[in-house]
Amino acid sequence: MSKDTLRFNSKTIHGGQAPDKAYGAVMPPIYQTSTYAQTTPGGHQGYEYSRSANPTRSALEQSLASIEGGNYGLAFASGLSAIDAVMKLLKPGDEVVSTNDLYGGSYRLFTKIFEDFGIKFHFVNMENPSEIEPYINSNTKLIWVETPTNPMMNIIDIQAVANIAKKHKVLLGVDNTFATPYLQQPLSMGADIVMHSATKYLGGHSDVVMGALIVNEKELANKLYFIQNASGAVAGPMDSFLVLRGIKTLHVRMQRHCENGEAIAHFLAKHPKIEKVYWPGFASHPNHEVAKSQMKGFGGMISFVAKGNNYDEAIRIVENLKVFTLAESLGGVESLAGHPASMTHASIPKAEREKVGVVDALIRLSVGIEDKDDLIEDLSQAIG
Ligand code: P1T
Predict the structure, then answer these.
(1) 103 lines ligand 1 (CB under 6 A)
(2) Closest ligand 1 atom to 150 CA
(3) Which residues are bridge partners to 121 per DSSP?
(4) Domain 3-247 falls in which CATH fold?
């Protein structure tokens, strides 16, 4: 039986993996080395310098490709450096159509770095994919999609956007951080590039910062490998080991994230002091049907606004939480709460973020895999 034909819950453990050639180690050793001995210039065993390639990173990159159903995986020093590498495929004058609700750091990278290099970004509400086409012209080279979006939990129809991208011969990149390949695999829906902040669910334990790209096309992979090596924002061997270990339990963790997320979304929706809950599992979510068809579950991310819709109430709630930790980031085994307007999305101008719903009263939860009753009790006492 080939490891390539395994089901997802086995690929997380075995995908692209083989016992280490030196001593048969089942987990790839942490090859904590920058360089490799050569017998003659160019006479090496496939590795010459760890920016170009490292065996621990290679093991992770093969795992990443396997779980996303792609042919090539690349591991970067952070999620943002992975996006940075995608943007370096572009040239001055090129244009990008991007989701209008997205991680604040991605928005900052686009508007504060790449706009200065002559790349133009259009931030578009993609919940209705037909809104994308008016922004496409002969300079458009890339459509960038985050789904579910951070933090508003909008759902974008990947297949529909892929059809538009194909029609206009532009690349489609999907930031799959919130969903993970357990819930959705964008390459199978027509995306060209899948991106992850592996810092989140793939690593899963809030102990590493890392990014990933996965693609199918060899030519595209080669361009990205070139950028990865030439720009040099690579994942280190220790971090690669940690994320590889995290991926081995991805399917088990995600199942619990989804169960706990569902319980908490319903708890909040019924709470008399809560005004609005953003979670794609509700039948009332504007793109619930798309979520149901393209995702296997609804994940562990939830945003909400308390009644009164004000900043002070949001701050009071996040400060009162005891089991949830007030912190940036998401996707770890422990539950986190965040205040996007002042934390993860502070780099987006207030008027821009408020247009998409990132108001001062918004709270974002990354629901962990603790006992859900403890999480509900904690929210209950914090909301009061
Ligand atoms: O933090 P880093 O590994 O560089 O990943 C950036 C990134 C990219 N895409 C999405 C959807 C993300 O959520 C992130 C990082 N996000 C947070 C730190 C956060 O708390 O939302």
Answers:
(1) yes
(2) 11
(3) 96
(4) Aspartate Aminotransferase; domain 2 (3.40.640)
CATH 3.40.640.10 domain extents, the chain: 3-247
| Chain region(s) in the chain for CATH 3.90.1150.10 | 251-383
| Structure confidence by residue, pLDDT tens digits, 35-81 | 999 999 999 999 999 999 999 999 999 999 999 999 999 999 999 99
For 289-341, what is each residue's pLDDT tens digit? 999 999 999 999 999 999 998 999 999 999 999 999 999 999 999 999 999 99
- Does residue 103 have an active-site annotation? yes
Distance 61 CA to ligand 1 centre (A): 19
Which residue has its alpha carbon closest to ligand 1 atom 2?
A: 79
CATH number of 251-383: 3.90.1150.10
d(CA 119, CA 116): 7
Pick from 335, 332, 182: which is nearest to 260 by CA?
A: 335
Of ligand 1's listed atoms, the one at least distance from the Cα of 80 is 4
Q: Which ligand 1 atom sits nearest the alpha carbon of residue 210?
A: 3
Cβ 247 under 6 angstroms from ligand 1? no
- Write out pLDDT tens, residues 140-184: 999 999 999 999 999 999 999 999 999 999 999 999 999 999 999
Q: Which tokens belong to 138? A: 């002969």
The arrangement of strands across the sheet holding 336-338 comes to: 274-278, 301-306, 362-366, 336-338, 325-326
Closest C-alpha residue for ligand 1 atom 6: 79
Q: Is the CB of 329 under 6 A from ligand 1?
A: yes
Q: Is 108 a catalytic residue?
A: no
d(CA 269, CA 262): 11
